[in-house]
């Protein structure tokens, strides 16, 4: 069992402050209350799994935050930028919303458990997000991508071929099985859908190889 906890860091690389929403998964053995995450300042009454906070603009003292769960405890969830997660586009977010997703420090799940990170553009893209990883064991996106150290998303119709990204509508990475059903698709949604040709959407490593830092960088809102 690993004794090294992976740190989760979030950075704003833009000249404007941004509100970040965190939604935790109700996963046994993982953090179950956003109040346990020191930088979360706003919570939802009656909902321990969702909260938000402000990242200052690039160069400010509050432009980055970091969290490492207690020993033996995992963290599972996602970050959304400017809004809580949305399944369908709105007037404010006409191309929908993408998510930075993660489960870290989950070695307690036993043999075969993997730390896993990705960007979900299944419901759209409102933000450009970059992951970078240092320390701990190597990350991979399958046999064709054995050593992944960073990845990011592009616009809503440009994510096929992007390691670590689920393209729009492609909830099974290489296929569309049960994506959100919306009255109207995002304005720039590809039609037909453009799934990944290979199963490269999840970036993972054996959970026993935890440690180091996973950094999620907000690179700006998509036009």
- Beta fraction of the residues? 25-35%
Instruction: Return the CATH topology.
Output: Thaumatin
Which runs of at least 5 residues are low in confidence (pLDDT < 50)?
Answer: none
Give the N-terminus to C-terminus distance in angstroms. Answer: 44 Å
Task: Tell me, rounded to a whole number, the average pLDDT.
Answer: 97
CATH class: Mainly Beta
Kindly give the count of domains. 1
Form type: globular
**What CATH architecture do you see?**
Sandwich
Order of helices and strands: EEEEEEEEEEEEE
**Helical segment tally?**
0
Profile the largest sheet: 8 strands, mixed
DSSP strand count:
13
Structural class estimated from helices and strands: mainly beta
Relative helix content: under 10%
Rg, nearest Å:
17 Å
Secondary-structure blueprint:
Layout: E1 7-12, E2 18-24, E3 42-44, E4 47-55, E5 64-67, E6 75-81, E7 99-104, E8 114-120, E9 127-134, E10 150-152, E11 165-166, E12 203-206, E13 213-221
Quick overview:
This protein is an all-beta fold and 223 residues long. It has strands at residues 7-12, 18-24, 42-44, 47-55, 64-67, 75-81, 99-104, 114-120, 127-134, 150-152, 165-166, 203-206, 213-221.
């Amino acid at each position: 069992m690993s004794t090294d906890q992976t740190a989760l860091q979030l950075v704003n690389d833009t000249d404007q402050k941004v509100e970040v929403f965190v939604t935790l998964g109700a996963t046994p053995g993982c953090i179950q209350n956003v109040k346990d995450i020191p930088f979360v300042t706003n919570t939802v009454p009656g909902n321990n799994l969702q909260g938000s906070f402000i990242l200052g603009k690039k160069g400010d003292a509050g432009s980055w935050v970091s969290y490492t769960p207690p020993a033996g405890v995992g963290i599972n969830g996602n970050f959304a930028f400017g809004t809580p997660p949305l399944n369908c586009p709105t007037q404010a977010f006409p191309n929908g919303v993408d998510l930075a997703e993660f489960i870290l420090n989950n070695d307690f799940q036993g043999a075969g458990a993997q730390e896993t990170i990705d960007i979900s553009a299944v419901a759209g893209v409102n933000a450009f997000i970059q992951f970078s990883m240092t320390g701990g064991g190597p990350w991979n996106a399958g046999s064709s991508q054995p050593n992944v150290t960073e990845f990011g998303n592009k616009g809503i119709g440009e994510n096929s071929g992007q390691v670590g990204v689920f393209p729009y509508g492609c909830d099974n990475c290489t296929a569309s099985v049960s994506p959100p059903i919306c009255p109207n698709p995002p304005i720039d949604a590809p039609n037909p859908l453009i799934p990944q040709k290979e199963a490269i959407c999840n970036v993972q490593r054996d959970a026993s190889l935890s440690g180091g830092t996973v950094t999620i960088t907000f690179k700006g809102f998509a036009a």
